[in-house]
């Protein structure tokens, strides 16, 4: 598991508002932040944030996140645009990405693709729009921030390996004018144990492994996605923080990957369910470590 050891980890889940708790976290203490924050103009049990209120919350959160991250640390904010009405998108998500580029640094554009998303009202026959299934993974940090690509390589498919092996000594010239030695690419993939992943992560959100999560939270982040980002951005044994914890999928991922976790959640119901999930994950880790 990429040199990570389950069971040797701690977690702290705080009940309250993110901006009340974040100032208590020491500067340069956290290795990475991974969070799926509440969205603007969406009715939830905890209320509805206007676009202006959302920007105020997120700007303050990003500034605190930048303070608490180690110099080598980085942050992921998972967000998805929504519409004012069919055919008219709200600008808040795009404004946020643009603000982050100016105020700090977007390391690379990255996206989560949910390939099992259900058709929305705008994707019916009458309106004729496409089915929305991509979310921004807004990746903030310094250009040289820590990332371990070897921990997130994709498995080379048998078909791909066979087709490339058949052209092992060929240098292909692409329509763009670039050339590529496909045999060398295959050799490197075999040496590394996988191929470099794309910046679009195809992970379905029905693969949580916990049906209670699907029933309890209207927009849960899939555990495999959280584990992928933890492996990529958090050094072994490091500290992961989520200021909008929800049901603590990021926390469970951190525990399963051998990292420590700090979470903040203001909703009492989510907090109690998250606490139970984290305790269960920690116990499971110890059982696997000491059979």
Euclidean distance between termini CA atoms: 17 Å
CATH class of the largest domain: Alpha Beta
Please state the average pLDDT score: 86
The CATH superfamily name of the largest domain is Vaccinia Virus protein VP39
Overall body shape: globular
The helix-strand sequence is EHEHEEEHEEHEEHEHHEHEH
Helix amount, in percent?
25-40%
Query: Which class of secondary structure composition applies to the elements?
Result: alpha/beta
Rg over CA atoms: 20 Å
Order of strands, main sheet, comes to 1-12-11-2-3-7-6-10
Unreliable stretches: 1-7
Q: What is the CATH architecture annotation of the largest domain?
A: 3-Layer(aba) Sandwich
- Put simply, the count of helices is 9
Strands, count: 12
Number of domains: 2
The percentage of residues in β strands lies in 15-25%
Largest sheet: 8 strands, mixed
| CATH T-level topology of the largest domain | Rossmann fold
Account of the protein in words:
The protein is an alpha/beta fold. The protein has two domains: 11-149 and 198-289, Vaccinia Virus protein VP39 (Rossmann fold), CATH 3.40.50.150; 154-196, no CATH class. The chain has helices spanning 18-21, 51-68, 92-103, 158-166, 182-192, 211-216, 223-233, 249-256, 268-289, and strands at 11-15, 30-35, 69-79, 83-85, 88-89, 111-113, 134-141, 171-173, 179-181, 200-202, 239-242, 260-265. The strands form three sheets. Strands 1-12-11-2-3-7-6-10 form an eight-stranded mixed β-sheet, with helices on both faces. A two-stranded antiparallel ribbon has the order 4-5. The model is unreliable at 1-7 (pLDDT under 50).
